[in-house]
Amino acid sequence: MRLSTLFVSSVLAVAAFALPSSKERFAARMARRANGTSHLQAVAFDPSTAPRSKYSSRPKITSANHTSFSSNWAGAVLNEGPGTWFTVQGTWEVPSPGPGPFNANFGAASSWVGIDGDTCGNAILQTGVDMIYDNGKASFQAWYEWFPAFAQDFSLLVGPGDHVTAIVEATSPTTGTAILINNSSGEEVSVQLSSASALCQQDAEWIVEDYQENGSMVPLANFGTVTFFSATAETVSGELFGTASANIFDIEQGGSVLTDSQVGVSLVTISPTFA
Questions:
Q1: What does UniProt list as catalytic (predicted)?
Q2: Catalytic one among 169, 209, 234, 252?
Q3: Which of 11, 175, 183, 215 could cysteine-pair with 163, CB 3.0–4.6 Å?
């Protein structure tokens, strides 16, 4: 396997993603995620159902890259035909979250890389870090997921200022690997996965997400700025792509755009539009 030299530890995940019992979830996950956390496919913003808010309305699009607005995704996506993407990776510095625009006491966001979930909604192979702000305290949780199954926690300690590298590899439409490396501590975790929900391997993603917990989206935190550098995607034939031509996503909620996403050659920067 091409990325096998990166593996320090490997955990074999069960092939059938049966939802764990509440007791198992409690034992395996933090209490805040006891009822299951999902990092969803991109949800298109529907302005007809959204109230207006005090934050900036949708800006004019001046980028040469196509921009889409979503209620939960911000970042960049490379869209190609089925069976294109083999691996996606990116490195970023973990920011410290603060209160968001809709809740002064609690908020969260998640930064991750993944395959599928935009034009292909069957499944998403993804890994990243959740950032949680709770009454003045910040916490972080590393995770992986093969959507539509719930996210599972990685036993990797992550803190503000750490440089994290995330890699996902689709070895086939129904098997893959998720790798998360804390470059600051030198620790690395990985998991080999299989699922009955097949990937299309047509979307490569670098995303900050307002994720779902207990059946509804969490209040978005002020996540600072997340910059994915060394953001690349490799095809099954070995061709390497950067992000200069990627499509841009920004989060729009309550009639307002809450993020500003920009792309470079192998760079994706996502910033909140609120203080």
A1: 209 (proton acceptor)
A2: 209
A3: 183
Domains of the chain by residue range: 4-17+65-272
Q: Residues near 67 by Cβ (< 8 Å), separated by ≥ 6?
A: 61, 247, 248, 249, 250, 261
Give 201-227 as a DSSP string.
--EEEEEEE--EETTEEPPBPB---EE
- The domain covering 4-17+65-272 belongs, at the CATH homologous superfamily level, to Peptidase G1 (2.60.120.700)
Per-residue confidence of the chain (275 residues) as pLDDT tens digits? Answer: 222 222 223 322 322 222 232 223 223 333 333 344 556 666 654 433 333 333 333 333 334 578 999 999 999 999 999 999 999 999 999 999 999 999 999 999 999 999 999 999 999 999 999 999 999 999 999 999 999 999 999 999 999 999 999 999 999 999 999 999 999 999 999 999 999 999 999 999 999 999 888 888 899 999 999 999 999 999 999 999 999 999 999 999 989 999 999 999 999 999 999 97
DSSP string, 106-138: EEEEEEEEEE-SSS--S-EEEEEEEEEEETTEE
* Distance in angstroms (rounded) separating the CA atoms of residues 48 and 226: 30
